[in-house]
Amino acid sequence: MAVSFKGAHFPIVNVVGARPNFMKMAPLLAEMARHPEIRAVLVHTGQHYDEAMSTLFFQDLEMPAPDINLEVGSASHAVQTALIMQRFETVLLEEKPELVLVVGDVNSTLACALTSVKLGIPVAHVEAGLRSFDRSMPEEINRLLTDAISAYLFTTEKSANENLLREGIPPEKIHFVGNVMIDTLLKHRDQAGRSQILTQLRVREQSYGLVTLHRPSNVDCPHTLETILGALHALAQRLPILFPCHPRTREKIGALHLTHYFTHPTDGALSRGLYLYEPLGYLDFLKLMAEAKLVLTDSGGIQEETTILGVPCLSLRENTERPVTVTGGTNTLVGAAREQIIAKALEILSQPRLPYRVPDLWDGHAAKRIVQILLRNFGRVP
Ligand code: UD1
Fold this sequence. Notes:
By secondary structure, this protein is an alpha/beta fold. Helices cover 45% and strands 15% of the residues. It has 16 helices and 13 strands. The strands form two sheets. Strands 3-2-1-4-5-6-7 form a seven-stranded parallel beta sheet, sandwiched between helices. A six-stranded parallel beta sheet has the order 10-9-8-11-12-13, sandwiched between helices. α1 (19-33) links the parallel β1 and β2. α1 (19-33) packs parallel to α2 (51-60), α4 runs parallel beside α5 (138-149) and α7 (180-193) crosses α12. The longest helix has 19 residues, at 77-95. The chain is globular. 49% of the residues are buried. The structure holds uridine-diphosphate-N-acetylglucosamine (UD1). The site of uridine-diphosphate-N-acetylglucosamine has 19 residues, from α1, α5 and α11.
């Protein structure tokens, strides 16, 4: 509902912190830049800070450098959340925004949302309402709490609207707008197509599997991590499996002496085996995903990206907060049991690709819808 027309400038503080936030924020910033009445400030909490976990994404996505970096770094959940809150409060007192916009479900999302509402500044949450119904996941707690205190809840799929309504969120706060991460994918698909990463890694299209793994439930438990690596190693006797590895996971692999599951690349085309790499930038990873025979992952975002790319995805999880990727997309939940992973992967390798459906409004225009709704609600559309 439109309110009265306010002052010329509409100051919005936008928050990113961890790798999956960057591709969600990029199209929102680009859309805000098209509206001179919006003064968009970008705050990076510094939750992720490595070149490969942060800087590369700003380059690949051509995002403006953050206006402010809180440089919190890694710490326990409590310390990280508290540090972000403390430093973000100072930013808000200085910037005096009319709105704070947060994306996703990482610690930075919740910490900044909570800081804002405590100062009486309304929060917009992009990617609201997703629920795994598994409260042992740190992200599920971040989602529940962020949604409970947000004024604008922008959802990516219909199940999210149902979850929010069930939790008593008033319907007028909920806006089904589509998926900003898919805005970014569609925009960069051609550019990613020109990436030389397949040549660099010496693999051919449709001849390899691709893995990512970083959830605490999979990598922090030695038995589970070793079971998954064992399954991947067995599968790697059928085709090369490429594993760009999150720093959390690499640390565990080193500490638990599990490097024997991996193969050293030799000269020439990559042969069968499980290969460990540093984390990749956005464009190289998108290219690798698009050309993979099969993706195995515990990431939520990759379940969505493979759905749009039509690439079969095995989720090494018992649940998903993104059910549309299973009901309509290419995603299958397999958990972390060895036989289940191998059996399902072999089934996929032996079959032609199944048809899939692009979820509603995953059309590249989600950021535009979000900015329009905000302009209207903050009285910037006369
Ligand atoms: C975080 C998010 C998770 C998201 C993931 C994507 C939370 C609770 N978790 O998990 O939802 O899916 O990011 O990557 O917010 N590290 C580095 N360099 C970095 C960042 C992290 O080496 O730039 C290492 C540190 O050892 C750190 C560990 O990774 O302790 C974990 O980082 P953290 O941000 O706490 O959680 P993630 O597992 O990355």
